[in-house]
Design a protein that fits this description.
Length: about 375
């Protein structure tokens, strides 16, 4: 495989990238920028697929979950966001604990393994609402895995409730939290962040919150939003900061690039939808650069099913979940259905010649799940 890889790569820079990957040497930010602007997507794919296969063989992970977007009321109103609104707006909602129980109970009858919770920054909601939410979800089905709240939300909860992020993590773990999603990272570069999400916590603070979680033994995802005003150098910087924290803590399990959709937002996208080359360069470069982060997720709901399937040959090993009730990306105009059946996701993976593995966010396949 190693010899095959070096034989098929003709481009000199990509050849040196392949050699570093084979030897387990971290590639440079200059390499990342080169990969992000290269038209040699088949060669990039060969390197990314080599790494993905070395890590996971022919396995591709997927989940059966529901999304719980508990409120769309948010103080920040980021220009990139189509989901949020002000209190009193006609589309504003905040779910009561009883409504949450009802939604989760219904999703349990559909066979979910996991609840993925994110929402807006609503000053009316205090810590006891969230703790009770987690407890009631666990009461419905004790082995439901809960992946809950972005670093943005934790930072806000800490400020509003006057306690540390660390204390919140301890209380939420006690109430049933399993792991953290990776949202709110966007792009760390301050000059870009100040335009796309000026009131959101800084990239530096996002990394601090994640570090606190990792040091408490909580594993997390990391995201990155692309296809807005970022340059390849901003992406390389973002990847580099994630890789550095990962070298320190080892707490990131998955990197999740998110193509930006702009319908209903105040910030125009670079393109209304990303091109195939854009996505392939981005995912393959991410897989190669983040050699120390085990999983790369290509969310079918953001990318479209066909692109997500193709990316399984460009570094992706996790295609996302069934996502019953997802609201955030669909508010911004994603054209994919608002949930995919398990058999459809398995079919996408199997049709790519790979082996579907049903799992939850910690990647520990549960005993009664099909593999
Ligand atoms: S992106 Fe998050 S923090 Fe920003 S407005 Fe939307 S819900 Fe609020």
């Amino acid at each position: 495989m190693t010899e095959y890889l070096l034989n098929i790569i003709q481009d000199r820079t990509l050849c040196s990238v392949a050699e570093k990957v084979i030897q387990g040497i971290a590639v440079s930010e200059a390499d990342a920028v080169y990969m992000l602007t290269s038209d040699h997507i088949l060669e990039l794919g060969a390197i990314a697929h080599y790494l993905r296969t070395r890590l996971h063989g022919d396995r591709v992970f997927y989940g059966v979950n529901m999304n719980l977007n508990y409120t769309n009321v948010c103080e920040l109103r980021c220009p990139l966001c189509a989901f949020s609104c002000d209190e009193g707006d006609e589309k504003a909602y905040t779910l009561s604990l009883e409504e949450i129980e009802e939604k989760v109970s219904h999703a349990v009858t559909l066979g979910i393994d996991e609840v993925h919770i994110v929402g807006g920054l609503n000053p009316r909601l205090r810590l006891d609402y969230f703790e009770e939410m987690l407890r009631r979800i666990k009461k419905i089905k004790s082995d439901l895995f809960i992946v809950g709240f972005t670093a943005t939300e934790y930072d806000y909860f800490a400020k509003v409730n006057g306690i540390s992020v660390e204390d919140i993590f301890r209380r939420f773990i006690d109430a049933g939290l399993g792991s953290l999603p990776g949202g709110g990272a966007e792009i760390f570069s301050p000059s870009v962040r100040n335009i796309i999400a000026p009131k959101k916590l800084s990239g530096k603070r996002w990394l601090e919150v994640m570090k606190t979680a990792h040091l408490l033994g909580i594993r997390t995802n990391a995201t990155m939003l692309y296809n807005h005003i970022e340059k390849p150098e901003d992406i390389a910087d973002h990847l580099s900061q994630i890789r550095s924290l990962q070298n320190e803590t080892g707490g990131f399990k998955t990197f999740v690039p998110l193509p930006y959709h702009d319908a209903g937002t105040w910030l125009r996208a670079k393109r209304s939808t990303t091109t195939g080359f854009d996505d392939i360069r981005l995912y393959a470069a991410s897989r190669i650069f983040l050699h120390n982060v085990p999983h790369l997720k290509g969310l079918w709901m953001y990318l479209g099913e066909k692109m997500a399937q193709v990316l399984l040959c460009f570094g992706v090993d996790d295609i996302g979940s069934t996502c019953h009730y997802e609201k955030v990306v669909h508010s911004a105009g994603a054209k994919t259905p608002d949930y995919g059946t398990e058999s459809y996701l398995r079919g996408l993976i199997g049709n790519a010649g790979l082996k579907p593995v049903r799992t939850v966010s910690d990647y520990q396949t549960a005993k009664n799940r099909r593999t």
